[in-house]
């Protein structure tokens, strides 16, 4: 479980990026983090994984206050936070398998990682994860030869190879076509449910957030202005998050993105029933 309490961040120039942000994310819940550019989404994720040091407040993961850690303790805590990036952050010249195994770098001695001699258990797990994300036949391909959707699947497998207690995801669909974006969001949500993983997904695509997330948190000027079920994201709420705008196109995009298979509809109804 992730618990964020009264989190604030003020940069040296005086800009206040986060203002007393508080929320909990229980096991298995997928939270979509939305808001306009500059609202504090990226800062919030960076404060959670301590790439940025908060000015105040606490971040607890399974009872450990990450904001108080340093050195070896912080490195151990970061192993428990799997990151999935918008631009994939793969090593292009390495194979798919080698990129996935890089998720174990925080666990193995330097000589093993340098020689690429990972324990057999790590290799077996990487094979199983690549099968789970649909890349079992691409193990030896170079990352540079993969499509955008395939690269994002490699990134998901790499994050899971860490055995994380939390997934932090930064715009995972921003560079993908609509069909692939839906597939990637579906995959992330499925693996979170399978493993009981809490996840925070920073994203701009409101229709996708409504379609797949269990919960939506809306940020504006560093503050939470909405925290609730995706179905409650009506035009009034969107205006509060983003400001005045004609939300007709968002509604049209949502209709276009509505699940059109029985499996999609069943999954969505099941998630909503469990949260009400």
> Approximately how much helix is present in the residues?
40-55%
**Strand segment tally:** 10
Shape: globular
Secondary-structure-based class equals alpha/beta
Q: Report the uncertain regions.
A: none
Determine the CATH topology of the largest domain.
Rossmann fold
Separation of the first and last Cα atoms = 20 Å
Organism: Methyloceanibacter caenitepidi
Biased composition (Basic and acidic residues): 262-276
Domain ABC transporter: 2-246
InterPro entries: AAA+_ATPase, ABC_transporter-like_ATP-bd, ABC_transporter-like_CS, ABC_transpr_PhnC, MetN_ABC_transporter-like, P-loop_NTPase
Topology:
Elements: E1 2-10, E2 16-25, E3 30-34, H1 41-48, E4 56-61, E5 64-65, H2 71-79, E6 81-84, H3 96-101, H4 110-115, H5 120-132, H6 148-161, E7 166-170, H7 178-195, E8 199-202, H8 206-212, E9 215-220, E10 223-228, H9 235-242, H10 248-257, H11 262-275
Helix pairs in contact: 5-6, 6-7, 8-10
Considering the chains and any ligands shown, give keywords for the structure.
276 residues; alpha/beta; Rossmann fold; 2 domains; six-stranded mixed β-sheet; four-stranded antiparallel β-sheet; 10 strands; 21% strand; globular
Model description:
The chain is α/β, with parallel strands linked by helices and 276 residues long. The protein has two domains: 1-75 and 168-177 and 200-276, Rossmann fold (3-Layer(aba) Sandwich), CATH 3.40.50; 81-163, P-loop containing nucleotide triphosphate hydrolases (Rossmann fold, 3-Layer(aba) Sandwich), CATH 3.40.50. Helix content is 41%, strand content 21%. It has eleven helices and ten strands. The protein has helices at residues 41-48, 71-79, 96-101, 110-115, 120-132, 148-161, 178-195, 206-212, 235-242, 248-257, 262-275; strands at residues 2-10, 16-25, 30-34, 56-61, 64-65, 81-84, 166-170, 199-202, 215-220, 223-228. Strands 6-7-8-3-9-10 form a six-stranded mixed sheet, with helices on both faces. The longest helix is centred in the last third of the chain and has 18 residues, at 178-195. The mean pLDDT is 86.
């Amino acid at each position: 479980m992730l618990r964020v309490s009264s989190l604030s961040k003020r940069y040296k120039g005086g800009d206040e990026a986060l203002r007393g942000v508080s929320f909990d994310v229980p096991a298995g819940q997928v939270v979509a983090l939305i808001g306009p550019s500059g609202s504090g989404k990226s800062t919030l994720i960076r404060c959670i994984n301590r790439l940025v040091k908060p000015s105040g407040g606490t971040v607890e993961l399974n009872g450990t206050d990450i904001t108080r850690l340093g050195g070896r303790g912080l490195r151990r805590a970061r192993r428990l936070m799997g990151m999935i990036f918008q631009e994939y952050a793969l090593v292009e010249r390495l194979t798919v398998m080698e990129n996935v195994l890089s998720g174990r770098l925080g666990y193995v001695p330097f000589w093993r990682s340098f020689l690429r001699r990972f324990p057999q258990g790590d290799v077996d797990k990487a094979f199983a994860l690549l099968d789970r994300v649909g890349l079992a036949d691409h193990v030896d391909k170079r990352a540079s030869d993969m499509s955008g959707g395939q690269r994002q699947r490699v990134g998901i497998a790499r994050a899971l190879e860490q055995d994380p207690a939390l997934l932090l995801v930064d715009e995972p669909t921003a560079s993908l076509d609509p069909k692939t974006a839906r597939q990637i969001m579906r995959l992330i949500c499925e693996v979170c449910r399978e493993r009981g993983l809490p996840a925070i997904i920073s994203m701009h695509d409101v229709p996708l957030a409504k379609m797949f997330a269990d919960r939506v948190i809306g940020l504006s000027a560093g503050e939470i202005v909405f925290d609730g079920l995706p179905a409650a994201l009506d035009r009034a709420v969107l205006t509060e998050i983003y400001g005045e705008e004609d939300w007709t196109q968002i509604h049209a995009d949502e209709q276009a993105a509505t699940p059109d298979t029985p499996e999609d509809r069943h999954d969505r109804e099941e998630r909503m029933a469990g949260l009400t």
